[in-house]
Amino acid sequence: MTDKTSSAEVLRSKLEDRSAEIAVLGLGYVGLPLVEALHRAGFQVLGFDLDEKKIEMLNAGQSYLSHLGEDLVPNICKSERFTATADASQLSRADAIILCVPSPLGQHREPDMQYILNSTRMVSEHLRPGQLVSLESTTYPGTTRGDCLPILLESGLEVGKDFFLAYSPEREDPGRSSHNTRSTPKLVGGVDPLSTELAVLLYSAAVEEAIPVDSAEVAEAAKLLENIYRAVNIALANELKPVLQSMGIDIWKVIGAAATKPFGFQAFYPGPGLGGHCIPIDPFYLTWKAREFGHHTKFIELAGQINSAMPEYVVERASFGLNEKGKAMRGAKVLVLGIAYKPNVDDIRETPAAEIIKQLQLRGAKVEYHDPHVPELFGMRKYTHDMSSVDLTEEKIRSSDCVLIVTDHKAVDYSLIAKHAELIVDTRNVMAAHMPVTGLLVPS
Hints:
- The chain is an alpha/beta fold.
- It folds into 2 domains: 3-215, Rossmann fold; 248-277 and 309-443, Rossmann fold (3-Layer(aba) Sandwich).
- It is 39% helix and 14% strand.
- It contains 15 helices and 15 strands.
- Strands 3-2-1-4-5-6-7-8 form an 8-stranded mixed β-sheet, sandwiched between helices. Strands 10-9-13-14-15 form a 5-stranded mixed β-sheet.
């Protein structure tokens, strides 16, 4: 048996009989559900995070992500097959290390690679023969091979012989009930065929379908295409919204009508702007990388401009509605409903509500918010909001000059709003079931 096959065969055997220990680096919206899937598959799982508060909560059996349910964390933490730590030296004991770290944008929409590169350096310092490293963070094509691999090679080990490296993009959608980590197909691409094979073997144990692709670059580009596709089509709906509004046509009814076509059309809906870690951010990773090769992705950039402009459009519609009632925005009491970027979760990453609140306050409005999933709003990267959710009562609704619906949580009593609000700005068409809607503005 050659040296090349020995490390691979040992790892393959451990993955096949589930005796391998898998480390998940980064225990957030991607990492924690992955921990659960790997644990359910029978692996020993090591959860690593630099945030010691998360580690303390996990070791105490407490969850910090409510959308995952009350039982997930306690069930994992009471198991002898799970350990949570902030000690990087423990990574050396793992047979596979999966990186689930943030990949945000910088001030000028350039990729902020510090989390990916720093975590890779951390892994490199503790890398040993026989380990598989897999990156899940969304990034530009070439990151795994061109950025991560050179750092790991600083360990003195040889890829494809001593250690193995792959990319498998996360496909998490917090709050979605139709799919979860286990049921969502997983793309897997290695920097060499053996790395791909071993990574597929790992993920096949934890998810229903692991799909090998030709390379890490194919997997990286596929992840970007998925989210660019959504961003562009949402931008189209957002661009049509004011156009049809001016024509007196309800865009929601137009989309509903078009969606009756059984082929060639997929419904995307307008909104107050894009939120979450993926769609507002991922397209610009490709835009940035494309410039290196002399290309300008005008279509993607235009979609970004349209989507980024929606919070200001929403505020303008609110101002118009107040003017129609003889009130100025300055001094108006505006109640924002929904802070999370999507319904029924507590995730506020890149939420358009933050920009909407900022724009309202710049225009002199007195802003409060209600969100049953987000009791406090603070600690955001680009905003200095320090607010608390108010109770949604008849008195609060009546005393507000405008109720602005940003996120359509199921836990909100919309019939109460329909009955008592003086002015409603509905960016999600949620009030259609409770009262006639014309565009965004719904008078009481």
